[in-house]
User: Which sequence fits this backbone?
């Protein structure tokens, strides 16, 4: 009975295929510098969007919408609101930390020839609310799964992706004409890069260190891992 | 100057490696049935958790915590709250849609020998709030990126993952002893399966259909895609 519902067994991933998936996961970086000015071919861009679009979604509602921004005037407008939000953000850090923050490169809005704003139609009726009655936030979470799919596919294509969250969402809505019922989830800078850093930029710059896995895992009940 | 900050160029992904990443993305399924009773070897489980743990996180805050639930009494308790939430959810559907909902298999909590609850320490000071002043929801979004990493790594390992959102988060907290300041993001059923379906279960059962990519993409400004 169950068997009749599923398709014939897929061929298992080979060792090389499995390693490639782990490689994309390990070598993915949040890229803020080093974008090349050469735009992505449309075919490649569509492959990345298709990878995002095939992400899981609660109740199969597929709430994610992708706004591809190549227009320079639009990107300049977004860059302006980044600068404003970043100046406000910088003001909370003092002394050496303030200097360190000021030296960070946190976006590549103008350097990356294409930006992609990924938004979520949280109220969409598709899926008939299946899975959203107890945890309605899973609509937005579905869109984040799309972001991560795109990020990993991009890494395999030697395309860098950087997520910019230092933006006032209200002003971003105005620039991109995003209606009130649509939730901006991620603003991404996307483009070819000639290399990927071996460490996250925030670690390399001394802003923060990664913690080991065992500090993040517990068994059968929640418990605080050992602190780093 | 920029060059000195990055490591020597990585070798580009081969065509086979690239295809493997797209394969994992395309063949990932939300699995609710067909879990095998054989538990995952600990080494494999740790590989999946490490993949999740290496997800991007805002400000490198790494807010995700992983609760691995193998204890049957705990899983029974979670299954009980699923049944209750699902009965309430089912009550909103009438007639043929109600019958269809009742026939859906929406979780594998007891069949999958391990469940993983992924939670987010949204208030953690790690990352020094970088990127979280304008969009604080990016802490939870970082945890969703971890979920998707785990999901894709699992697919490459022939391990099925199903996300259960039909749970009352307050009661889930009580069972897993999750403190108030920690946000439950995803409850996953995880285990070996002998095959993966070629279509999403909700599509196969006629609950919902997937829409084509072009309905989800617009350029430079938001616009509604053509409706399916």
Assistant:
């Amino acid at each position: 009975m169950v068997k009749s519902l599923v398709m014939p067994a897929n061929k298992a991933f080979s060792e090389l295929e499995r390693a490639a998936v782990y490689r994309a996961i390990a070598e993915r970086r949040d890229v803020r510098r080093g974008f090349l000015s050469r735009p992505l071919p449309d075919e490649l861009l569509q492959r990345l969007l298709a990878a995002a679009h095939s992400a899981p979604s609660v109740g199969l509602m597929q709430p994610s919408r992708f706004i591809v921004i190549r227009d320079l005037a639009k990107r300049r407008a977004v860059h302006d609101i980044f600068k404003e939000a970043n100046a406000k953000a910088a003001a909370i850090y003092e002394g050496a930390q303030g200097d360190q923050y000021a030296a960070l490169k946190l976006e590549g809005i103008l350097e990356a020839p294409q930006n992609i704003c990924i938004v979520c139609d949280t109220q969409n009726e598709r899926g008939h609310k299946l899975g959203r009655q107890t945890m309605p936030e899973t609509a937005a979470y579905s869109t984040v799964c799309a972001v991560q799919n795109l990020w990993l596919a991009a890494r395999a294509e030697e395309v860098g992706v950087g997520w910019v969250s230092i933006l006032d969402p209200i002003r971003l809505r105005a620039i991109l004409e995003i209606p009130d019922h649509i939730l901006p989830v991620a603003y991404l800078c996307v483009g070819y890069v000639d290399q990927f850093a071996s460490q996250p930029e925030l670690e390399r710059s001394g802003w923060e260190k990664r913690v080991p896995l065992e500090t993040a895992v517990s068994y059968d009940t929640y418990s605080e891992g050992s602190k780093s």
